[in-house]
Amino acid sequence: MSSVIVPGTSLSAVVLLIIAAASYYYFEKIKDPSYQPKLRDIPAIPAIKEGVGKSLEEDKPVHYQMGASGGQLYSTLVSMTLVALTFLRYISRLCAEMGAKLIVHMPYQAESIPLIEGTTLEGYKEAGKPEEFRRENLRYYGRGALTWTQGVTASFAQEGVGLNLAIGIFYSDCPISLEMAKYMGGLNVGGTGRWIMVYAFAMMCDYVFLGEEIYAAAAVVSQDKMMLVGMLIEEVGKFFVFLLLGLGLILSLVGMDVVSLLSM
Amino acid sequence: MNMSATWRTLVPTLIVSLTALIVLAPFFINIPLLNDMKNVLNSWTVIISAVTGAALGLVYMTHAIYANYQRNKKTEQLVMGITTYLFLALYVGLALTQPGNVISPAYQWWYTVLYQNVGATIYAFMFFTLASSAYRTMILNSVEAASLAAGGLIYTLRQIPIFQTWFPWMVPLGEWILLVPNVGGSRGAVIAAALAATVYGVRTIWGKEISLKEVS
Prior knowledge:
The complex is a heterodimer.
Chain A: H1 11-30, H2 44-58, E1 62-65, H3 78-98, E2 102-105, H4 113-126, E3 138-139, H5 145-159, E4 163-167, H6 174-183, E5 187-192, H7 198-204, E6 207-210, H8 213-222, H9 225-253, H10 258-262
Chain B: H1 5-24, H2 32-71, H3 75-97, H4 105-137, H5 143-157, H6 161-166, H7 170-179, H8 181-205
Helix pairs in contact in B: 1-2, 5-7, 7-8
């Protein structure tokens, strides 16, 4: 038996996965179908609509960027790509409904481009205006964060910026694009789940999604039950982590080796 | 023949779910076959990435350059478009034709003198944007901004020798800021984001992720 289970497998991770899957099953199959959890208000969400309105008033385009490396489909950050796609769909729908021009700065991962193109089109379809979708407003700058940064800032300078919505996987590409959008008079709204880059968003954005807030905000803008329930399940996970913290503290106080216990 | 919407959704979902389970399982279960399958799938990731990155990327880049010129029909725009391909030709040409390929002096010159310097310029520019935004952010108009400014200032000044001599207490204080409140706060944020990512993963494997669903 011991040879089948990988030595050092984190028991807590397995338990967490089981809890998440069981909770999803419970909410989908057993809980009242009309049930929708209420998430707290995040100020940056209404700011997106405000920004689209500002763009219309100033006759400037809305810019959407998911990061130079924001199209990762096979890394540990893929959840952020999915969040960015949810926001892309939302902003496309909003721009189509309100009549604003949307420019999407695509990441350099070429394999994600069909997905981005399709998601943008879906947003326009949701608004009932697929004919307003313009493929030339999806901008691609080739490989590398440096070319991407130059392309995005050149677009700000040439076409103007009303709202700059930046959500996704960001590395050192975001300070230049965010600061240039601010410099050009744009309203910056954005966030990333990469904690190491949250500082740039906190400093440069008018409205920021702090870390995990991008996941919660994506669930709110989607208004989909399963996505909202996902946030509730995350809370279950947080309580599980708190439980582990408390338990670990007590066990280490009585002299037990907690690390090896959790790495069973 | 048009594929029905159900099949268009079901087939990719099944592929994603099955692939994810195969890749995930060897982390917990020690069966050599599963491990081999995981390695094969991982190598396919590299192949798909390389092919799409080179081929599809080139197609999209060409389209982007053409669209740029259509939007802005100026000589400079045309020159910029042509320059891109000249650089590409130089990049591939030097790598393929020079003895030693990518370690040839000509290629190394191109890489270190042209490519790296362009990168360094952009990075330098990034630090100016950081400085200007830090100046805007750290204005003492709230408790949060003031504490951020104080923490940042102590942490920065402690690196400067003259402050280390005049105010030796800054060194351990700066270290404490870095290792205690900074690490404590960031760990909480990282755990929360990781939990959210786990939930996304479970939902995707289960085929309930809605961001990729079609309208009709």
